[in-house]
Amino acid sequence: MALTEDKGERHPRAPLAPWLRGTLVTLGSISVTMLGLLLVTFVIGRVMPIDPVLAIVGERASQSTYDAVYEQLGLDKPIIVQFLYYLGDVVRGDFGMSLLNARPVSEDIARVFPATLELATLGTLIGVFLGVPLGVIAAVRRGSWIDQIARVVALVGYSMPIFWLGLMGLLIFYGILGWVGGPGRLDIFYQDIVPSRTGMILLDSAIAGEWGVFRNAFSHIVLPASLLGYYSLAYISRMTRSFMLEQMSAEYVTTARVKGMSERAVIWGHAFKNIRVQLITVIALSYANLLEGSVLTEIIFSWPGIGSYITTALLSADMNAVLGGTVVIGLIFICLNIFSDLLYKVFDPRSK
Amino acid sequence: MNAMNRLLSGAVLGLAVALTAPMSAAWAETPPNMLVIANRIDDITTLDPAESFEFAGSDVSRNVYMKLVNFDPANLDAGYQPEIAESWTVSDDGKTITFTIREGLTFHSGNPVTAADVEFSLRRAVILNKTPAFILTQFGFTAENVEETIVADGNTVTITTDKPYATSFVLNCLTSTIGGIVDMKTVMENEVDGDMGNTWLKTNSAGSGAYKLVSWKPNESVTLEANPDFYLGAPNMERVIVRHVQESASQRLLLERGDIDVARNLNPEDIAGAAEAEGVKIYDELRGRLMYLAFSQKHPELSKPEVRQAMKYLVDYQGMQDSFLSGQYTIHQNFLPRTFLGAVDENPFTYDVEKAKELLAAAGVPEGLEIEAGVREAQERIEIAQTYQNALAQVGIKLNITVGTAKQILARYRARELDVYIGAWGPDYPDPHTNAGTFAYNPDNSDEAQATGLLAWRNSWDTGGLTEKTAAAVVENDRDKRVEMYAEIQSQFRETSPFAIMFQKIEQAAMRENVENLNLGGATTAVSYWPVTK
């Protein structure tokens, strides 16, 4: 014992390696954020005027049945005790059973989340590949017709109700022209052909080499993804334009031009390079918003995603499902934050 | 959002009809051996017949499980008919029914349907004691006594009730979902922790009906596959797919494009639009749900007989039926839905403000009376409440409408706190007692009785002799006499009760013109897919 103590005194504890400290700080902040999120959602779930017991036993159950289920759900215990029980389960990866369909919530989320992930990813890709160039061009040719178009596109994207736009899209491209598939992820002929590996039909059908299914799935996803992509485009192009305008008026741009650099090199090699970090934040936020699930888009297009899952659960007082979904969305935001931080380090020399 | 949705979708789809009419001939079709239906199926919580108690779940169950007795979709008015039970006899004391099991039936697994399966299924439903178990346990079956009360012997099954109930009452109850007969061997092979296969049966099937369950994806789809060995012959539709499509406008587009055969949740605007579309027809069927007003008898004014009458004359039945409820509800002023055993079609009350004024004056109701109505946040209910509010204003009564969630409103209704409740009621099982036993039955009207399941109790109504008459009707074995008894109960109920029954639900399904013989189940049962042809 004494030897150990001596040894300890002779060799004071070495400071943690910076990467380890960084990781621990990140993990700590994730834990605190998740704990806060869980607590707030849990408390809101318990105080809001919906009744999980009534959802299970039905309107005409006797008082004794009602009381038995009330007790069975642990609702008779103090709220803090209920929360601690729930926290213990979540830490073990158990979100509990859905009160309504009696399936594990984690299974339900594993089923609905890939549908949203597929849609949101495609929507974000459309938003980024069209929105960024549009924003850059609008900034470079400020006041030109293309800038006016970009502003109108953004304005319409901000102000048009997604429900109306979705229905119009369905009506024109599915109802009248027949160019795309209707509501749902696949035509009935193509259902259950491809085994579900990732839950994302485009990916699963590509892996299985079922190109007929792939084409059909694409024809169904292209309209809702374009719709979400449009909203994403509106946001991304507007932000890109404003970031670029700021850079284009900076002195280094004038200097680069004076030095005789080509306009293309000035725009893409200098100005755009400097807005990448800000853009990452914008794109990550937009992606996270789409990953939350766009409830109205999911309803119009009968898309069984996480947005409509959580909404249905909320309206049915299925609080386990609501909490499970909220935790997943919280995790998405945190992961995208970490990912953005990592990209900052790649793109921003100062953070190295 | 509902009103907004309806408005927008109506406008958009009105435009759609005009634009798409010339192209409709080129639309696709579903395969001839497949029935594709759009329906809201997010109410399904389980497919175990011992537990299932929701509309969309009953639709699945009716096609997957056979019962001892069942309704023939081609003639629902004929009442229960033999199915697994080929015949039955009733003991002299009226308490024991012995069913003889039909020979040669098989489950989807290939196992034969035996008396032991029937015994197991009914005992299981009682022992599991899930929400709909009361439909069986009201006959005195308990987990402790099922071994004596539900007994298989060779090719027969005997059930013994605690009292001599009307045979029609017992048999009607056996036609409900909980009467579904499951394959004992398959179910017990999948038992976990003594759950009698409950967990497994939530998402799988073990029946002998016209269809077997292929998959249920919550909020997404239910897929059924035809049972070629079904005792009435293999169904024409080899596959039935029910897709969850939440939005009425989306259902209508799918139907008009020919991607589905039947749309079951179109709103009135979309029904009107779809009716104009080429290749689409509208089919109406009366369902069991009733819309009603109830008046608390704890309220000193509302408890006066003249006031109860006056309140019924202040409902604009015709006006509402012809406007916002058009096509969705029909006037019906009795607690038994039309097509139920014992139903009557007498609707004496009309909107008559003068008559109401006279009655209120006779009762000495003070000017400026204020009462509170509770209503759940559903569009049609709120519109009914507002219409009623306007009518009451004409006789100097101020109706304060409290709109809330199910929890808020039902909690107060069950606690006997509301002056007026505006809501809906659907039968639990296809026997008149299901509604008589809640509207007209209240053996103990005290607060302490806490009979929250009884609507008469919730409104603090001492039924004035109807409780005894209801109790007598449920044990009357002569079917014709029983019908007469319910007619008499309803006649007295209409005049004296604090309930204004207003409307009965009509389900309007829009379908492709080539779909034939789809029966939605009327007021008594659920949809039948096996007779459908295309």
From TrEMBL, chain A:
InterPro entries: BPD_transp_1_N (IPR045621), MetI-like (IPR000515), MetI-like_sf (IPR035906). Its main location: membrane. One of its GO terms (molecular function) is dipeptide transmembrane transporter activity. It comes from the Bacteria. Signal peptide: none annotated. Residues 113-344 form the ABC transmembrane type-1 domain. It is a multi-pass membrane protein. Belongs to the binding-protein-dependent transport system permease family. This is Peptide/nickel transport system permease protein.
From TrEMBL, chain B:
It is found in: Periplasm. One of its GO terms (biological process) is peptide transport. It holds the Pfam family SBP_bac_5. Keywords: Signal. It comes from the Bacteria. Its main location: periplasm. GO terms for cellular component: ATP-binding cassette (ABC) transporter complex; outer membrane-bounded periplasmic space. The keyword Signal applies. Residues 1-28 form the signal peptide. Residues 80-445 form the Solute-binding protein family domain. One of its GO terms (molecular function) is peptide transmembrane transporter activity. Belongs to the bacterial solute-binding protein 5 family. This is Peptide/nickel transport system substrate-binding protein.
